[in-house]
Amino acid sequence: MSSQPGQVLFKKLCAPCHTVGVGDRVGPDLRGITNRRDQTWLSSFIQSPAKLRARQDPDALALAAEYPAVRMPALGLSQNDAADLVSYLAAETARLADADVPTLPASSQHDHHHHH
């Protein structure tokens, strides 16, 4: 599977502070963020977090309060880059959700592979 543009951006720009599904690092874990936040909001925040804070956006202010030691920097991303990142986060969230499906106990696994 080829890597998505968003994945490359994420590793370069976001991974120093964020994980997806591994827990909070410097900033919050981003797993499920696309389910909790509007895509337009996420794109805006990725492009210009300070602008949202300046507008007194409640979500941006709540994040600033929850993670007082760090401020999400303006990364100078285009709208396309931001959209790629949001898509990547949605895809990762979906991938992790699939991985969470409980696996059957080993004893019943052989039932699934019928060799005729």
How do the helices and strands line up, and which of them pair or pack?
Blueprint: H1 5-14, H2 33-36, H3 39-47, H4 49-54, H5 58-66, H6 79-99, H7 106-109
Helix pairs in contact: 1-6, 3-6
Under CATH, the topology can be stated as Cytochrome Bc1 Complex, Chain D, domain 2
% residues in beta strands: under 5%
Reading off the top of the CATH hierarchy, the class is best stated as Mainly Alpha
Task: Specify the CATH architecture.
Answer: Orthogonal Bundle
Question: What string gives the helices and strands in order?
Answer: HHHHHHH
Average pLDDT reading: 87
Number of domains: 1
What does this structure look like?
With 116 residues, this protein is mainly α. The protein has one domain (5-97): Cytochrome Bc1 Complex, Chain D, domain 2, CATH 1.10.760. The chain has helices at 5-14, 33-36, 39-47, 49-54, 58-66, 79-99, 106-109. Helix 1 packs across helix 6 (79-99) and helix 3 packs across helix 6 (79-99). The radius of gyration is 18 Å and the shape is globular.
